[in-house]
Every structure is written in structure tokens, then in C-alpha cells.
Please model this.
Amino acid sequence: MGKKPAGNIDINYEDYISGELSLFLNNNVIQSGYLFWFRAVGPDIIVFQFPHPVHETELFVIEAKRLYKGSRDYVNSGIGRFKNKEHGKNHDIAAMLGYVQKEDFNYWHGKVNSWIDDLIANPNDYIGWSEQDKITIIQVSEFGEYKSTHSRIKINPITLYHFWINLCNQK
Model:
């Protein structure tokens, strides 16, 4: 996970954000008595049963990406990893976390869908993008909650739940 910076969350390092979020979730799960364990693996968060045997299959997969100016990682190496089965190939449902670092949820909703429009108009990979890949709003309040469904080659589609966290006021 890397060295922990002094003070607030280091919003420039998504592995660190995911690690801190996993610690927070695990502390709350332990107190509630649920039998889940969250493990940060880079920017990803994997959910296991607790206690989990070493080779146990994950229960749920979460991909985390920063949302900041100039980076299309949220779509290309986020959603794209689910579409091409790098993540979640044994699941029909998974999640993405978006660490919003500039602008607001409405801005990013439009921006992410415009990046998907670009991939539809200019296909450059084998996974194929369509209107179905665009994210739709579930609700926007303290967090942004969205949903999308994505086709995958030779397996069932995957539904992604997107949860966006506003980190704009963190330093």
C-alpha cells in the first residue's frame, strides 16, 4: 500500500485511498458482526468471507479509479477490465468506486458517458462499446450512485454499480 502520508488522505494515490477505505470498512464490519473482509489489492478492493482461507474465491470485486482532469482510466482500465473479463469474470454484479478530485458528480457523469461515446464512435479494441455501456443515475446526494450493464464475450453481461466519493475538499 505504500507509506502513509501525514495528515489527511493522499488523494493523488488511489492505492492509498483504497487501503484507507478498506480499513474503514473492515473496522465497521467487525463491529457489526458481519462475516466479510475487505482487502485492498492496489486500487481494487476484494470482498471475502471472514475468516477467509488463502485460496478462497472472492465474493465481490470493486475497481477503484480517480476521477480527475485528463484521465480516462475510469472507462478504459476501469469499466474496460470488467468488459474484457480481467475483473469479475465469475460475477454478474460488481462495483466501481470513483474518487472525484475535481468538479462535481454531474460533470463526471457527462464526462464518463462522453468517453464511452468516443469509444463507440472510434472502436479500437476487441471488446466493443455500445450505448448500453453508458452509466445511468440511481441517485446523487452525499455520494453519487450510478449503474451500468456491459456485454462480455462468451459470458453473461455484468452489471456495475458505481459509487462516487467527493474528495475535492481533501488536501
In short: The longest helix spans residues 14-32. The radius of gyration is 16 Å. The beta strands are 36-41, 44-49, 60-67, 93-100, 136-140, 144-152, 155-166. The helical segments are 14-32, 73-83, 105-121.
